[in-house]
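Hi, here's the filled form for the chain we discussed.

Project: internal
Contact: R.S.
Residues: 95
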Amino acid sequence: MSTADTKPSNAKAGDHSDRSGTTSSPVLGIIDALASKRGVDATEIDVSLYESIDPEALELIYRHAQRTETASWTLELTVEGDGITIDSDGRITVQ
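And the returned structure, exactly as it came back:
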């Protein structure tokens, strides 16, 4: 399992379960978490999120949750066989 905040990674070597930093993009967070799980750099991963989710809609939902501190949600999807869970607080889990 790989867990990430939607934030630039500061992962410990060999540890793909604890990532932290700051950014406002769940789409980039998904790419980073998938790359980490697959053991490649995020710039080298070849994945199309459009087949699983509308990235612009995900960005809008996430930004709304950031503006509305009481908004809470969890989204589950599958990207190329990897199960991904995204929480309104920015946590991304890849299984």
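Let me know if anything looks off before we file it.
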